[in-house]
């Protein structure tokens, strides 16, 4: 199994690296990429099409569009991690309130 961790901004790398370190502890192959649903949608699309990825972990703050965009492009599992920016409510609600047919598993802020 391979996990691809996507973050929407370079400022989110620290949280992604913590997740990567935990996956490495369990000997789960993983990689981290910065890919914004708004600024670099072509890169997001390319990463989603990678056949070697089995699970996506998408971390994003503010509008947190990344998990939903990834889920709309794949049938593979997507885990959305809302990141604490300001109070964190915007990103949390963006991840948990997906429209029908766009399944995203959600975890707590910065989890």
Automatic annotation (TrEMBL):
Domain PurE: 1-111
SUPFAM superfamilies noted in UniProt: N5-CAIR mutase (phosphoribosylaminoimidazole carboxylase, PurE)
Entry's Gene Ontology BP terms: 'de novo' IMP biosynthetic process
Alphabetized UniProt keyword annotations: Purine biosynthesis
Entry-linked SMART domains: AIRC
Protein's recorded name: Phosphoribosylaminoimidazole carboxylase, catalytic subunit
Organism (species): mine drainage metagenome
């Amino acid at each position: 199994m391979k996990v691809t961790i996507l973050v929407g901004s370079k400022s989110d790398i620290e949280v992604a690296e913590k997740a990567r370190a935990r996956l490495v502890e369990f000997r789960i192959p993983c990689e981290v990429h910065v890919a914004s649903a708004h600024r670099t949608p072509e890169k997001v699309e390319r990463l989603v099409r990678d056949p070697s990825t089995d699970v996506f972990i998408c971390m994003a703050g503010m509008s947190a569009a990344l998990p939903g965009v990834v889920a709309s492009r794949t049938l593979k599992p997507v885990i959305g991690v809302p990141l604490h920016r300001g109070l964190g409510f915007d990103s949390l609600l963006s991840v948990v309130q997906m429209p029908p047919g766009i399944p995203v598993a959600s975890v707590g802020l910065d989890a």
